[in-house]
Amino acid sequence: MKDKWKEIVSIAVSAVLALVLFASLLVGLGWNMLLCMGLSLVSYAGFLLVLRPVRRIGRIDIEKLGNGEVLHERLQEAGHDYRRMREAADRIQAPGLRQSAFELITIAENILKFLTDNPKKIPSARRYIDYYQETAANVLENYVELQDTRLLTDESEKIFQNTAEAVVTLKDAFRMQFQKLMQNELMDMEADLNLLRQTLRAEGYEARKEEDCGEERDGLRNEKETGV
């Protein structure tokens, strides 16, 4: 909606600027009307090209992604369900469940940020977006709806308890989904660390480090023995 509004504004501003140019050339300079119209149309296209908002996912231009529009829509869906979760969690009155819900939201926020920074990972998050996060939003909203009725029955108490258990399960599911999304990045980081170790070992740094660690351990041992 925000992007659509920006696009409408850019079209309106471009049209106004083109009309101002047309009036200036026709009335101010007395140029031929057809020439003024032609130049105004060309200028309108130019203004539109310059003023048209560049839609991005993170820092990446949507048009530079092969299926940028689809990825943008999927990310919008994820953002919508994330906001639903936050709004519902803000209304939860039970302290324990409220804290657990915000822990869940923290994981969801990290996933959303990761997908924004790495839009090519969005297709891999299809299951998370379509099922896990939407289910979490529904669970929290249903809890708040029942909470607001102030209905205290055995059945409602059972639902409250089941909701608390569901949130704990969802936290584990969110972490698992995040770990899957991060798998390649974790492997790359491990490869970089292994390369760093090999480089340091080749330069003799690790041997010196081991000696330093040995001296530090000896010093700590002496402190414990002497109490100084």
Topology:
Blueprint: H1 2-28, H2 33-51, E1 56-57, E2 60-61, H3 68-91, H4 95-117, H5 126-149, H6 154-181, H7 183-202, H8 205-226
Antiparallel strand pairs: 1-2
Protein name: 5-bromo-4-chloroindolyl phosphate hydrolysis family protein
Transmembrane segments: 7-25, 31-51
Region (Disordered): 206-228
Q: Helix tally?
A: 8
Distance between the termini: 67 Å
Average of the residue pLDDT scores: 79
Number of strands: 2
Secondary-structure element order, N to C: HHEEHHHHHH
Overall number of structural domains? 3
Helix content: over 70%
Q: If strands are numbered along the chain, what order do they take across the biggest sheet?
A: 1-2
**Secondary-structure content class:** mainly alpha
Poorly predicted sequence stretches spanning 5 or more consecutive residues: 224-228
Radius of gyration computed on alpha carbons: 29 Å
What is the strand content?
under 5%
Biggest sheet character: 2 strands, antiparallel
> What is the 3D form?
flat
Protein name: 5-bromo-4-chloroindolyl phosphate hydrolysis family protein
InterPro entries: ChloroindolylP_hydrolase
Keywords: Membrane, Transmembrane, Transmembrane helix
Organism: Mordavella massiliensis
Summary tags:
two-stranded antiparallel sheet, 3 domains, ChloroindolylP_hydrolase, transmembrane, 228 residues, 2% strand, 2 strands, disordered C terminus, 82% helix, mainly alpha
Describe this structure in words.
It comes from Mordavella massiliensis. By secondary structure, the protein is mainly alpha-helical. It folds into 3 domains: 2-53, no CATH class; 68-181; 192-226. Helix content is 82%, strand content 2%. A two-stranded antiparallel ribbon has the order 1-2. Helix 3 (68-91) runs antiparallel to helix 4, helix 3 (68-91) packs parallel to helix 5 (126-149) and helix 4 runs parallel beside helix 6 (154-181). The longest helix has 28 residues, at 154-181.
